[in-house]
Amino acid sequence: MKKLLLLDADIIIDLHSLDLFQNICKAYDVHVTKTVLDEAKFYRKDGVSWPIDILSKVIIVDNIEIEALRQVNDQAKKAILQIDPGEATSIAYLIQSDEDIKFCSCDKAAITLVSFMDIEEKCISLEKALKEAGHHKHLYPRHLNSSFEDCIKKGKELRIYQMKLT
User: Fold this and answer.
1) pLDDT for 138-147, tens place per residue?
2) What three-state secondary structure class fits 3?
3) Domain range for 47
4) Which of 7, 24, 38, 107, CA to CA, is 20 to 30 A from 53?
5) pLDDT by residue (tens digit) across 119-131?
6) What is this structure's pTM?
7) Among 112, 113, 148, which Cα is nearest to 128's?
8) Which CATH number does the domain housing residue 71 bear?
């Protein structure tokens, strides 16, 4: 059985521009929230804008609980982090789901927030996800595990700081 991977829009767009989306789909059961699907419409390659059509390749998550979403937004406010709706719905799904699923994003605020919320074990860098799938290709710096770990560290520091304030 394939591992489950929940993708953010920035990862979907980047995977298309790097010609790696099919590789991820072969290695993982890819999930996206409806909001992320709506955000990931186009990617640019060689100066041309191309449409993204992934409906037949992914599992759409559209049953996000309002209370989970409220919790994500409250935690983002506490951490003073700005996240977009796609990231918020994805993180909400992480906290409501019993599935063994990993969230893959390269957005610094989203990664920092999951660490702040103490759920970083449910997240993975794109570099690590690709390596686990057996693919090694040059990636953008934002995809690297080192960038991911820097955000995790920042989120832990914010969590400790917040605990001291309360």
Assistant:
1) 788 999 999 9
2) strand
3) 3-165
4) 107
5) 999 999 999 999 9
6) 0.93
7) 148
8) 3.40.50.1010
Task: Please identify which residue in the block is written with the tokens 């935690």.
Answer: 75
Element containing residue 11 per DSSP (H, E) = helix 9-17
Side-chain-side CA neighbours of 81 within 13 Å: the count stands at: 28
- Measure the CA angle with vertex 24, ends 142 and 61; round to 5°: 90
Asked if the model's pLDDT at residue 166 lies above 70, the reply is no
CA dihedral 118, 123, 127, 133 (to 10 degrees): 150
Over residues 30-49, the pLDDT tens digits come to: 999 999 999 999 999 999 99
The total of structural domains in the chain comes to 1
Q: What is the DSSP string of 75-128?
A: HHHHHT----HHHHHHHHHHHH--S-EEEE---HHHHHHHHHTT-GGGEE-HHH
Residue where the block lists tokens 């929230």:
33
Tell me the CB-side half-sphere exposure of residue 79, using CA atoms within 13 A. Answer: 28
Tokens read off for 30? 């890819």
**Residue 116 in this model has a pLDDT that exceeds 80:** yes
* Residues 6 or more apart in contact with residue 78 via CB below 8 angstroms: 116, 162
At which residue do the structure tokens 């409220």 appear?
Answer: 70
